[in-house]
Each structure stands twice: as C-alpha cells, then as structure tokens.
Fold this protein.
Amino acid sequence: MWSIVKYCIPAVLFAGLFVGCGNNLSEQLSILEMPALSGTTVSLKKEMGSTATVYLFLSPDCPMCISSSGDIRELAESFTSQGISFLTVYPGTFYSVSEIDSFHTHYNIGLPAILDTAFVLTKLLDATVTPEVVVLSPEYETLYSGAINERAASLGRKRQLVGEHYLKKVLEAVLSKKAIPFKRVNPVGCFIES
C-alpha cells in the first residue's frame, strides 16, 4: 500500500500544476518529472532522445501488451543507438508496483518505466489504450501516435504474421529525414481506465 501512495502523491501534486494551465505541450513536458518503477524520479526532458522519443503505454495483464513485448524489445535494440529514446508508461493505479515490475522483468522489457498514477502523461499525449505509442520530436511535436504494428487484427484477435510495422517505418523515416508515412493508426488493445 505504501509503495502506491509513495508514487501517487508526487504525481497528484504535480498534476495539480496543470489544472487551468495554458502552457503548450512542449512547455508542460519539458518540466514534467514522473515517478519511475525503479523508485526514482524521471525528468522527461532529460530522457528525450536527440532524434525522437517513443512513449509506450502498457498494462501488465493486457494480452496485446504481452504479445507486443518482443516487438518492443527489438525496436528499442535497433533504434536506441541512433538517438531514439524509448520509455514505457504504466497509467493509473489499478496495478501494484510489484505487478508492473513482474511484467516488466518477466517479458524482459528492459526500458525505463514511468508510473503515471495520476494520468498526467497519458492525458497530455492523448493515449487511450495499451499498447499504444506516441513518438515525439526533440521539439515535442507529435510525429506519430497509435499502433506499434498490425499484430492486433481486432480486439481479442491477433495475427501470427505481422505485415505492417507502423512504428518501425515511422522511426526509419525520422532517421532518414523523409516524410512520416503515418500520422495516426488507431491502436487495438485494452482501454486505459481513468
């Protein structure tokens, strides 16, 4: 119980700073600090990639998050060395810190994990389901949001072979300074309950 309270209080206090705040997204994200799964605090500004930052919204018991864990690992391994940061975000307080840690460890996610207990980051980036990704430029412009790939055929149905790799194509376009092929692809997954 204390671990949830310990992480919730800073997020709730910080969330209060945004109430009625007229700041734009870049101003809000540049000062945002969030509790991390490790027990520390994460400064989103310090975690920004020099080329792009990928926020992955996950939940421990969502079948699509479990199915996507290997895809997430592969993408991070391929792109992190090229100036792209990857951060996982666990919204809400439905899951305990130990449940999130167990999922993160068991599926070998291996990325910094943010506990968004007050839905501050979730709301700023308009995430609605897990898994869902939001890719930001170093200037905090949303380059892409939505599905990682087309693994989910529909709610409760997944494809064995993934034909379209949305996030991978977006990151390749960012690195090659080409037009982003997708701005938004609606993700299929578990709804984030706020």
